[in-house]
Amino acid sequence: MKTIEEINEKIARKEAIILTAAELKSMVRDGQNVTVDDVDVVTTGTFGVMSGTMAVMMVPVAGKCSFERADSIWLNGVPAQPGPCPNERLGVVDLVINGTAHADDRYGGGHLFRDLVKGKEIDVLVEAHGRRYENRVTLDDIEYARIITTRLAFKNYHALINPTSSTISTIFSVTGLTGPFTETTVSGCGEINPLQNDPSHRTIGVGTRVLLNGAPGYIMGKGTRSSPDKPNVSAFADMKDMDPTMMGGMKTAHGPECLTSLAVPIPVLDEEILSGLKILDHNVPLPVSDVNGRTAHTKVNYGHIWEGTDKVIRVEKDRCMHHPDCAAMRTCPTEAISNNFDINRDLCINCGTCTIQCSEGVFRARLGAIELAEGTVPISLRQSDRARAEKLCTLLKNQILKQTFVPTKMMEPL
Question: I want to staple 226 with a disulfide (CB 3.0 to 4.6 A). Which of 79, 119, 190, 222 is the partner?
Answer without folding.
Answer: 222
